[in-house]
């Protein structure tokens, strides 16, 4: 069932329930009111008989008995009377024989009592009122309810027709409201289908009313289209840049292999040089492909859960690996601090910062690292980065001036910026105290109080951080 039809049915059902409820309440309230008026009329006629009986008693005459002799008192054409003695036996009547059961006998034997009920006599529905009279016995007064029932049947017909018309009108109005209310959704659906058909992400969906739910939905859809367009553009740029960067090592490899194929009589030294060159280009190509995959991978698909990570311990571990691999001294000045993130991604970012510093520092010069408050700062003793290039070095395949003779793909710092953004931080380059470059990775930190320690699980020395008291602190 379509949403428009469901809304119409819901509106019609809600109005129908309300109309039927009101109609039923009106019918029963009207009937109760009319019956109450009949009871008032019966009590009035009973009181008239009681007054006439009291006047007869003052004159010493017997109480009037319903019948032709008292036509003036009991001559109402729509009312039936019947006199009962003390034992409940009829003594006179007008018209129909009214029923007498134990209830009427009790009223006749108990002065000052009365009771009313509905009875049926010869197929006629009557409202009968029985009241005790002062001189003993009781008087029964009954009135035909045919007129009342006819009026109620007519009212029922009117209410049923009104209810049906109300439900039909509600269904029609609900249909019109649903059509008008869902028209923006139809427009949004059509625009989304057009985007899916044409693959054109640059055409936004018009937002007529930005303050309602449909307007917010359209605005969210436009934001999604913008994100998709930006992602597609970044993907196209990445592919274009990657194809350009991959072409150089592939061409060099091809040249080396072709020389090796043709040069059967090459001297062993030249042959070894070509092989070393090919292996170097393969290493560069492998590193480039790895970094391309890293840039193209969504952080949400990375293995490892988001958790508390001891950043100072992570930096010390990565610094040790870089020091062993490069043979260059790495000095670390780290204060205990905790960040929330993925340890594997943070290791890659810190490793790229250290590799970049080691690459630019002159031989024998150390790499200095400081860690404090969620910030990792890596300083080298190289030529530094000009101020006008400091923002650009974090772009993909960005290579600064004088970097042509330095190995690298230009993706290391781009990965650092990507990891920083995914962890709610940022990265930048500034001048170090020695005049070189100081690369900074700043992440939101979880403060560690004085005397706090960390406990370590079986999977990593860098995660599972907890704050303990001074007596429980452990390194």
* Order of SSEs: HEEHEEEHHHEHEEHEEHEEE
Strands side by side in the biggest sheet: 2-1-5-4-3
Rg measurement, Å: 50 Å
Number of domains: 3
Layout of SSEs?
Layout: H1 3-58, E1 79-84, E2 90-94, H2 102-109, E3 114-121, E4 124-132, E5 138-144, H3 146-198, H4 213-262, H5 268-296, E6 307-310, H6 311-326, E7 330-334, E8 338-341, H7 343-360, E9 367-372, E10 375-379, H8 412-422, E11 426-431, E12 437-442, E13 445-446
Structure write-up:
The chain is of the alpha+beta class and 475 residues long. The chain has three domains: 3-151, Beta-Lactamase (2-Layer Sandwich); 213-296, Signal transduction histidine kinase, dimerisation/phosphotransfer (DHp) domain (Helix Hairpins, Orthogonal Bundle), CATH 1.10.287.130; 302-472, Heat Shock Protein 90 (2-Layer Sandwich). The protein is built from eight helices and 13 strands. The strands form three sheets. Strands 2-1-5-4-3 form a five-stranded antiparallel sheet. The chain is rod-shaped. The model is unreliable at 402-406 and 449-475 (pLDDT under 50).
